[in-house]
Design a protein that fits this description.
By secondary structure, the chain is α/β, with parallel strands linked by helices. The chain has 5 helices and 7 strands.
Length: about 160
């Protein structure tokens, strides 16, 4: 399983996604350009000391991401408000890459077209969207649950 963020706009979301990836032993791919300097203090603040534990893969462009070795295996599963299938009905597989778009605008049509599947997280009537990293955590948790992919670490108290 992998998390991929397409041109993220908010440094704190990237930092939180790095922390999520580190804690759940999931690589994080960042498809640039970002809407902020990648070295932004907000990234470091949100990632806290987990940033060093995260497996971060930076890609200069969408084309670079598509041609990367980590992208060669598994399906590309796009999370979008224009999704065709609800999260609770989707069957994840080992090797899937969970792709999340820009906070401000999602992803362009060519990225939609490249996805093997489109999934949405059902929301209450009147709710517009969830925070990017909250969405990623919900999706990754379900994907790891279905594939028995959670880390095997001891419980913490």
């Amino acid at each position: 399983m992998r998390l991929a963020l397409f041109q993220p706009d908010i440094p704190q979301n990237l930092g939180a996604a790095l922390r999520l990836g580190a804690c759940l032993d999931t690589p994080v791919d960042v498809i640039e350009p970002c809407g902020f300097p990648f070295s932004d203090a907000g990234v470091r603040r949100a990632a806290m000391d987990y940033g060093a534990l995260a497996e971060l893969n930076r890609h200069a462009s969408w084309a670079d991401f598509l041609n990367s070795s980590g992208r060669k295996a598994g399906r590309l599963v796009l999370f979008t408000t224009k999704g065709a299938e609800p999260l609770h009905g989707f069957e994840f597989r080992h090797g899937d890459t969970l792709l999340f778009g820009r906070e401000s605008s999602g992803v362009p049509e060519d990225v939609h077209a490249a996805a093997d599947a489109r999934v949405f997280i059902p929301l209450a009537p009147g709710a517009r969207s969830l925070n990017l990293t909250v969405s990623a955590a919900i999706a990754l948790s379900e994907a790891l649950r279905q594939t028995n992919g959670f880390p095997k670490g001891a419980p913490r108290v």
